[in-house]
Amino acid sequence: MSEIQQAAELLAAGALVAMPTETVYGLAADASNPAAVAKIFAAKGRPADHPLIVHIGNIAQLEQWARDIPPAAHALAEKYWPGPLTLILKRQPNVPDAVTGGQDTVGIRMPNHPLALALLNEFAKHGSGAVAAPSANKFGRISPTKAAHVKSDLGDAVAMILDGGESEVGIESTIVDLSRGNPVVLRPGAITAEEIETTLGAHAEMPPATPAPRVSGALAAHYAPRTPLQLIASDELLKQVDACVFKGQTIAVLGFSVSPLRHPAVLWFAAAHSAPHYAHDLYANLRLLDAAGVDLILVERPPEDPEWRAVADRLGRAAVGSGADDEREAT
Ligand code: TXA
Ligand code: MG
Of 200, 215, 242, which residue is a domain's last? Predict the structure, then answer.
């Protein structure tokens, strides 16, 4: 039996399978099976009212999970699927409450990774053909972009980890809410609000300043390393490094230049200069910075233009959520 067949059978039997996607690795369970979906929440330590994204392998499956689908949804699905875009739509009555957190909407996406698509299509022969899948990390921690990240975070909680190499995009999908009229971008991602607007010929709102917790990725303390992390403007970076060294702190720096200094207390990582490359490396870099065992992580603030918005969003949340668990907000 092939690995994909084995994974599909595990899903049909109600087990959890970690699957690679182009954004981050997902922790997948049969979306039609509430008991299987419950295992996701247990494995992640995630609060039960946080809704999950339903992943499908074929645009034709959209109607099985969503109703009253507006033309904008078809336009976006045709343009960006398979790809890093999640659509929030009115749910079909058969979608389990365990998936939607009891809301009247459901998040749906078709991932663009050959193993994920092969798994979903094989699973369509054995079962519903759709999986509910959050990022395959412990709740509130750094999302996994490699099979080894999943193994170290969730280990024995998953029946199988499909290794599909490094996630190409590296940050979670853009989420667009189409369930209440005008499109609203609930989570920025590789597909920008400007691209959504161009495709739809309509204004796309950005999330409100204090997002409601119905989008768990919108909680401030997300994507967070355990080491305290500070974002520093480019022209302040070296001054801050000096100040930390002077205080006797050990630091790890993620900066855009190569290391301008050699000091035993400073570990310097040079970041990629393009937003897509930076995003690709971001979570692996955060894990390395966190594993360095330093007192403080300093990250040079990325540029302000739209293509950096998703990266800036994740870094901002990493800064807010960083630090030891008992020092973090109980979100
Ligand atoms: O790229 C991705 O989207 C990855 C891969 C695995 O597909 N998945 C992912 O899942 O990031 P997760 O659970 O870590 O984040 C899903 C986000 C959460 O913030 C959740 O609140 C939001 O989607 N979401 C899901 N259903 C929703 C709904 N009906 N209304 C509003 N937000 C929803
Ligand atoms: Mg997540």
Answer: 200
Assess whether the C-beta atom of 217 lies below 6 angstroms from ligand 1. Answer: yes
Residue 124 maps to which CATH number?
3.90.870.10
Q: What is the pLDDT along the chain (331 residues), one digit of tens a residue?
A: 899 999 999 999 999 999 999 999 999 999 999 999 999 999 999 888 889 999 999 999 999 999 999 999 999 999 999 999 999 999 999 999 999 999 999 999 999 999 999 999 999 998 999 999 999 999 888 999 999 999 999 988 999 999 999 999 999 999 999 999 899 999 999 999 999 999 999 898 886 544 444 454 445 556 789 999 999 999 999 999 999 999 999 999 999 998 888 899 999 999 999 999 999 999 999 999 999 999 999 999 999 999 999 999 999 999 988 886 544 433 3
| Helical packing angle, 114-126 and 3-12, nearest 10° | 50
- Omega within 30 of 0 (cis) for the link into 213: no
Q: Which atom of ligand 1 is nearest to the CA of 169?
A: 1
Cα of 277 vs centre of ligand 2, distance in Å, is 20
Select from 119, 172, 314 the residue to mutate for testing ligand 1; criterion: most ligand atoms less than 8 Å from CB: 172
First to last CA, the chain: 42
- Round to whole Å and give the CA distance between 261 and 264: 10
289 lines ligand 1 (CB under 6 A): no
> Does the CB atom of residue 120 touch ligand 1 within 6 A?
no
Q: Are residues 238 and 196 in the same domain?
A: no
Q: How far apart are CA 170 and CA 113, in angstroms?
A: 12
